[in-house]
Write a structure and sequence with these properties.
The protein has 2 domains: 18-233, no CATH class; 235-388, no CATH class. It is mainly α. The protein contains 18 helices and no strands. Helix 8 (144-159) packs across helix 15 and helix 14 (281-297) packs antiparallel against helix 15 (307-320).
């Protein structure tokens, strides 16, 4: 399949896009990067960023990445050894410039990613929708915006038959946080699945061994053993997830993995069954949105900054609709109010404590949206811009 995304945009309805609006949204993103950096790098010294920086130095010195270092930061490093090495450029520069570059990388990657899957007008809408959650991720100096971009980049790489780039995006995302492995399922639409699997496997092997550039095999083996131990403990968390909702509703302390496995089956089932829709761009774009939301509601470590991933899925879904129905508008407003605004100053503090904090209610709109997306995959593609971008998978 040879998709022409420029042709897709040109064939979309001729809806005006005011350049001043584009500049305004771009300015808001730039202000978000600067404001978050000043808040977390000048006014405060963000703990997450201190953990990342310390891990890179510990890797160079052969120290346990996953041990406690209370004199440097609280909490533990929980990413891969490969990420500690890749983060090294941000660890050796002074704190504020490196934090600005890190936040700019996260925001810039997400900005570009949204533009790869949506026409100009749709990308503008999606960038405005996701702004608040993107800012929340930057204020925590997290990697979630970058992870979101990598998921979208892997999708678009496979769409354009860039097998190596798609595999690299999958592997780098998984090296940051394991759950982006879900984006490897985009290869279902790729006609050369064996080549994709080989590319992903080779890329993963390369990233696993990459820290050998600065450490010994024995030390690296010990690092992976420590990483596995700390991840095993965190596997008991539920975060803002379906598993948490099940526990709150049924009062059953069920393990996470059977529910997560069930979620994976529900995610890929319509794609595996509806092979007749594989040539439909609308269908594949809906699946991208479903994966993005899935990566939050079934991720046992999800927290408020993680929701930028689901927000991107919601933004792409809504921005791509040619003419949203009343039901779609209602679902979008429900998502904005009860998920995106739930942790902001716009939500009354009493409501946050009584509902959103106590019952993790901001997860509910994500679950409802995910179910709606899955229903669309089963019933047929939604009406979205660029529907003429169907092509053969031969």
């Amino acid at each position: 399949m040879d998709l022409s995304f420029s042709a897709m945009r040109e064939s979309s309805p001729a809806l005006p896009v005011h350049r001043s609006l584009e500049f305004l949204v771009a300015a808001l993103w730039i202000v978000a990067v600067i404001a978050a950096t000043i808040q977390q790098g000048v006014v405060h010294h963000n703990n997450n960023f201190l953990i990342f920086r310390a891990a890179s130095i510990h890797l160079l010195h052969g120290q346990d990445l996953y041990a406690a270092y209370p004199s440097l930061h609280f909490d533990f490093y929980k990413y891969s050894p490969a990420f500690a090495l890749l983060f090294l450029p941000f660890a050796v520069l002074p704190l504020v410039p490196s934090m600005f570059m890190w936040n700019a990388l996260n925001a810039g990657a997400l900005w570009l990613a949204l533009g790869t899957v949506l026409p100009r007008r749709g990308a503008l809408i999606a960038r405005f929708i996701v702004l608040l959650d993107m800012l929340g991720s930057l204020q925590n100096v997290q990697s979630n915006a970058l992870v979101t971009a990598l998921i979208i980049f892997s999708f678009i790489a496979y769409e354009r038959r860039h097998t190596v780039l798609g595999g690299l995006a999958v592997d780098v995302g998984a090296a940051i946080k394991v759950f982006p492995l879900a984006d490897a399922s985009f290869a279902i639409f790729h006609p050369r699945k064996v080549r994709v699997a080989v590319a992903v496997a080779l890329g993963a092997t390369g990233l696993v061994l990459l820290p050998l550039l600065v450490t010994t095999p024995a030390t690296l083996w010990a690092q992976y053993a420590s990483w596995r131990a700390i991840e095993s403990e965190d596997a008991l968390d539920r975060g803002f997830t379906v598993m948490q909702m099940v526990q709150l509703l049924l009062r059953q302390d069920w393990p996470n993995w059977p529910q997560q496995a069930g979620g994976v089956l529900l995610l890929v089932a319509p794609v595996l069954v509806r092979r007749d829709r594989w040539t439909d761009w609308n269908f594949r774009l809906t699946y991208l949105c479903s994966v993005l939301v899935f990566c939050v509601i079934f991720n046992h470590q999800s927290e408020s900054p993680t929701f930028v991933i689901a927000a991107a899925g919601a933004a792409i879904w809504f921005a791509a609709l040619a003419k949203p129905s009343r039901l779609e508008w209602a679902l979008f407003v429900f998502f904005v109010v009860c998920t995106m605004l739930a942790s902001s100053d716009a939500m009354p503090r009493a409501m946050q404590r009584a509902v959103f904090d106590r019952y993790h209610f901001k997860t509910v709109p994500c679950i409802v949206l995910w179910v709606a997306l899955q229903v669309r995959l089963w019933r047929g593609p939604p009406r979205v811009e660029g529907a003429v971008a169907e092509s053969s998978l031969a």
